TrEMBL record:
Involved in chemotaxis. Part of a chemotaxis signal transduction system that modulates chemotaxis in response to various stimuli. Catalyzes the demethylation of specific methylglutamate residues introduced into the chemoreceptors (methyl-accepting chemotaxis proteins or MCP) by CheR. Also mediates the irreversible deamidation of specific glutamine residues to glutamic acid. The gene is cheB. Signal peptide: none annotated. The lineage of its organism: Bacteria, Pseudomonadati, Pseudomonadota, Gammaproteobacteria, Lysobacterales. It comes from Stenotrophomonas capsici. This is Protein-glutamate methylesterase/protein-glutamine glutaminase. Contains a C-terminal catalytic domain, and an N-terminal region which modulates catalytic activity.
Length: 350
C-alpha cells in the first residue's frame, strides 16, 4: 500500500524556543516533515522560494515585517495554506481574525505563560490542523477587511418573533464563511444562533467583527436573554450555547458543561437544542470545518422537521463537518457559500 508523502512545513516565528518546540511537535508525526524554520518574514520569503513547503506556520507578531503584512503579500503573490500561531490575548484575537480574513486557513493559540508546555498540551490539535491545512483550498485574498455591507432599506421582510430561527455551525474557515452569510442578511432577518469553534479569548472580538459587517445586530449571548429577529447570537468564550423555549419565544442558555466532540462551544449542542425546542420552525446550516461536530445535531434538526443546508466542497476551506453531515443523510441541500444566505431567507419566507 502506497502512503501519501508527508506534508512539508516551514515554521516561521521570531522566538527560537517556539521554533524548536513546534519543529519537535510536528516532526513527531510521520505525516509531517518540517523542511525548515525562519525567524522573520524576510527569511521566510527566501525559504518559501527555495524549499517550496506545503504549509506555513506563521507567528502573528514579528520583527522586520508584521505577520499580517507578510500574509497579505503572500496570499496575493503566492497563495498557500497558512496556520497562524497567535497569542491568547484580545489583541492577538483581533489580529488572528484579520489573518483569517486575509486567507489563513486556521490558527493555534500559544499560551501567555510556559509556552513550551502549553504548546505540548495542544500537540495533537496542532498536528491535525497542519495536516488539514495541507489538504485545504486556498484562494488568493481579495482583502475583505475594508468592505462593509450596503444596508438596503427596501429589504424588509417582516418576520414575527417566533416565525423562524436560523442555526449555523462552523469551524476551520468559518470565521470568514459566517461573515459572508451574515453580511448578506437584512436587518430584519429571522434570529440567528451561531456556533464557531474558537477559544474563549477570541469570542468577543469575533462578535464585534461580525457586528461591523452585518446589518443585523451580532452579539455574545448572555444566559436567559430573549432571542429576537434581527439579532444574531454567539456563545461567550469557551461556553456552550443552547436555546430553550419560554412560552411563545426562545431564550439563550449559556452553560459551562463539559466539551462535546472535544469542542466547547460545540455545534452539536446548539443544533440538538434547536431540534428539541424549535423543530420545524428552524433552518440549519453547517459550514466549512474540520471534523464531524454538528453532523448528528443537524440530522436531529432534519428529523424534527427543520430544513437543512450544507456548504459545498468547492467553496469550503475544509469539507469535514459539512461532508460528515451529507454522508449521514442530514442535509436537504448542498450549496456554494455565496448562495446560502439567500436560501436561508427563502426557506424562512416559505
Amino acid at each position: 500500500m502506497s502512503l501519501a508523502p508527508p506534508c512539508r512545513v516551514l515554521v516561521v516565528d521570531d522566538s527560537a524556543l517556539v521554533r524548536q518546540v513546534l519543529t519537535e511537535l510536528l516532526a513527531a508525526d510521520p505525516g509531517i516533515e518540517v523542511v525548515g524554520t525562519a525567524a522573520d518574514p524576510l527569511l521566510a520569503r527566501e525559504k518559501i522560494k527555495r524549499l517550496n513547503p506545503d504549509v506555513l506556520t506563521l507567528d502573528v507578531e514579528m520583527p522586520r515585517m508584521d505577520g499580517l503584512a507578510f500574509l497579505e503579500n503572500l496570499m496575493r503573490l503566492h497563495p498557500m495554506p497558512v496556520v497562524m500561531v497567535s497569542s491568547l490575548t484580545e489583541r492577538g484575537a483581533d489580529t488572528t481574525l484579520q489573518a483569517l480574513a486575509l486567507g489563513a486557513v486556521d490558527f493555534v493559540a500559544k499560551p501567555k505563560l510556559d509556552i513550551a508546555r502549553g504548546l505540548e498540551a495542544y500537540a495533537d490539535e496542532i498536528r491535525a490542523k497542519v495536516k488539514m491545512a495541507a489538504r485545504s483550498r486556498v484562494r488568493a485574498s481579495a482583502s475583505p477587511l475594508r468592505r462593509l455591507p450596503v444596508q438596503n432599506a427596501s429589504s424588509h421582510i417582516g418576520f414575527r418573533t417566533t416565525d423562524r430561527l436560523i442555526a449555523i455551525g462552523a469551524s476551520a474557515g468559518g470565521t470568514e464563511a459566517l461573515r459572508t452569510v451574515l453580511e448578506t442578511l437584512p436587518a430584519d432577518a429571522p434570529a440567528v444562533v451561531l456556533t464557531q469553534h474558537l477559544p474563549a479569548a477570541f469570542s468577543a472580538a469575533f462578535a464585534e467583527r461580525l457586528d461591523r459587517h452585518s446589518a443585523m445586530s451580532v452579539r455574545e449571548a448572555s444566559d436567559g436573554e430573549a432571542i429576537l429577529p434581527g439579532h444574531a447570537y454567539l456563545p461567550a468564550g469557551g461556553k456552550h450555547l443552547r436555546i430553550i423555549r419560554d412560552g411563545a419565544r426562545w431564550r439563550c442558555r449559556v452553560d459551562d458543561t463539559a466539551p462535546v466532540n472535544l469542542h466547547k462551544p460545540a455545534v452539536d449542542v446548539l443544533f440538538r437544542s434547536v431540534a428539541q425546542n424549535a423543530g420545524a420552525n428552524a433552518i440549519g446550516a453547517i459550514l466549512t470545518g474540520m471534523g464531524e461536530d454538528g453532523a448528528r445535531g443537524l440530522l436531529e434538526m432534519k428529523q424534527a422537521g427543520a430544513a437543512t443546508l450544507a456548504q459545498d466542497e468547492a467553496t469550503s476551506v475544509v469539507w469535514g463537518m459539512p461532508g460528515s453531515a451529507v454522508r449521514l443523510g442530514a442535509v436537504d441541500e448542498v450549496l456554494p457559500l455565496e448562495r446560502i444566505a439567500e436560501r436561508l431567507l427563502a426557506l424562512a419566507r416559505a
